[in-house]
Amino acid sequence: MSVKKPDGEQRRSPVAGTYVLVRSRRRTVGLEVRPDATLVVRAPVRTPVWFVESLLREKAGWIEDKLAKARNHVSLLPRHDFLTGEHFPYLGREWPVAVFAFQSQPLSFDPATGFTLDMAAFDRGEVVFEKWYRAQARKLLSERIQYYAPLVGVSVPHLRITGAERRWGSCSTSGTVSFAWRLIMAPMDVVDYVVVHELAHLREMNHSARFWTVVASILPDYDTRRHWLKDHGGLLTI
Fold first, then answer.
1. CB 167 within 8 A of CB 180
2. 37-46 pLDDT tens trace
3. Does residue 147 sit in the same domain as residue 68?
4. pTM of the model
5. CA pseudo-torsion sign 11, 16, 18, 24
6. Residue 175: which domain range?
């Protein structure tokens, strides 16, 4: 499993240990503990280090709590070597992979047996799996968008598949809906929730009561689906 590191300056604090300081044109200082247990401090360009250190001391309890939870989460993440017998998530199930030589495709899938990985693609397994997941995500999400758009009362929007790590979906003011390719690993009812959520934003570009009324009119149990994603989404990775 690879995790994209944030661009920034790596520093060490006696309070928070190692952290990444990212300077930008933002106006305030923000703290983020990423899923891989990396502490990221985002600060305005001219923010002095002493101010950052004072904030770290002030938020020491919060930081330690978040880091502990993130480290526990990291320990639960799958570690794949792309060997026969390992399992990969797809539409809410864990499917086994078998590695064979001289396959017609780098990676194939059979709902009766699971994944088959060509031995020649073994050393680039992560790339091959991501490419397959992206293709399946584009196909399935396109179908679900076409199904749900009339129910939500919006036109079928343009679809983008992204590599986003912290957002399952997003909607632009231009009418484009974007989804993380990892969403294809979740159960179908969760996929549908994220699709309806983003389509509803084409009517209400906010999270107001009216927005949730639109979502609930299509998926009355949306809250159950949303909580599944919150509780289990971090494990949907290769």
1. yes
2. 889 999 999 9
3. no
4. 0.72
5. negative
6. 142-235
